[in-house]
Amino acid sequence: MADYTDTILITKSLTHFVPEFIYVGNRSRLPDHAEGMEQASLMLINDAAEPSSGQPRQMYSGQNRIEFGAEEDVFEMYNQVRELFLEEAEREQVKGRMLQACVAGKGLDAIVSAAAELMGNPVIMLDVSYKVLASSDISGVSDPIWSDNLHKGYCSYDFIAAVHQMTSVQNGMKSIEAYEVECSGSQVTKLVAKVRIGSKPVGNIIVLGSTRPILQKDHELAGFTAELVAAELAKNSFYRNSSQAEYEELLYGLLENEENGQRLVQESLRSGKRLRTGRLSVMVLDLGRYEASGKYNGYLRDQLHLYFGEEHLIFYHEYMVGVSERDSVTAKPRDNDSKMREFLVTHQIRLGISREFTDLAECRKYYLQALKALEIGRVVWPSEPRVLYADVQLYDLLSPHAQHDPRDVSHPALTVLREYDKKHHADLYHTLYYYLKNNQQLQKTADELFVHRNTLRYRLRQIDELIQIDLSQIDNMLRLYMSYQMTDYLDKLRAAGAICNADS
């Protein structure tokens, strides 16, 4: 309807057609010759027979023409089209009020309230940390979870973690269009439109289908609301003036754009913000398997504060991310470390931690390290929930060679042992691995292999004869052990890839 401005009923006196109108009427009343006929948009009831001369009525290639059967009521059709125009006019009127509220600086509440009137449902504005910046009248909110979120003024970590596990949200986050969200815990459909300032995400508009169902036209209106909200946020720093909001906004900027990191940090310093200094590290928490049901609202936030302190954690893509300036994250007391591990294991949360750094502008680089720690940790130590990038950096260097033959990185001596084992049904390859892993302690190695010490001594003599390498030299021992580690990692990577391919 956007290309048309009104509808006109076709009468005998009609002599002029304009392309901005839709003309509705009986085909019998359509003038044979009228100005603009060749470009007219027509909705006709076919009630007229072809002329007796046998010559069909003239048709124009530029016309937009739809014909209906003679049984249709022309006035009912006209009223339906007219109603569409009235609805469009009403929408434009409310959109005008929203735009006026934005221009006049009436604030987010005025824009959001007008949007709620326009769409006939409650509308909420959340920032990137899921805090409520504005909402329409909440008396019509029937969803108890959203009612709780609105009364508190923010969404709990448990709620956010559950939302990020939804397939509709994961798919919607990849799109620039508004998208609908359905969940088993609520019968209310949600419509989500991203709020962006330039290319930077700053929040979401949420439309709750509490009063009436979400319609297709609401997708466009939610997007329009998001654009106006973005304009209001861009010109009004009131909504971002708390120190926590400023820091979260900076962290998002650093994670999104590594090239402008120095500029963002300098701007923050000039505005008087206190930034993290000293020995920093990026923490990335994967909550993909966290189960929030059965826990009180706010449980996850309380537990994370207990183990990580008052760190400002933000949700970035599907992860929770924070920057720590405390040494205790990477070197916690033994008793607290065991409690943290128990918490992570119990709730199926995985934690990746970057190497330490001192320049906050390099935050994205170390965020990617923490992600790598998560990724590699799943392969190398699937039962270990907390992985430091420093412990897996060697594996990261090997990752580009994942498709290579293991023999490309395997020490020649280990290849000799593998070939011997294959030919003689022996186990010298693994025997040497456990011997090196246990610092060449005979009894510990024999226990782990479930063999007698004399059996182990015999195997070690065989290994010595085959590879002829002095294991008392630290360099030799290191090269062999690292070769074991690299080969094992590449084998696990390929196995994980095969499993993923089979699943897909």
UniProtKB/TrEMBL annotation:
Gene3D superfamilies: PucR C-terminal helix-turn-helix domain (1.10.10.2840). Residues 428-484 form the PucR C-terminal helix-turn-helix domain. InterPro entries: CdaR-like_regulators, PucR_C-HTH_dom, PucR_C-HTH_sf. Pfam families: HTH_30. It comes from the Bacteria. This is Helix-turn-helix domain-containing protein. It comes from Paenibacillus tritici.
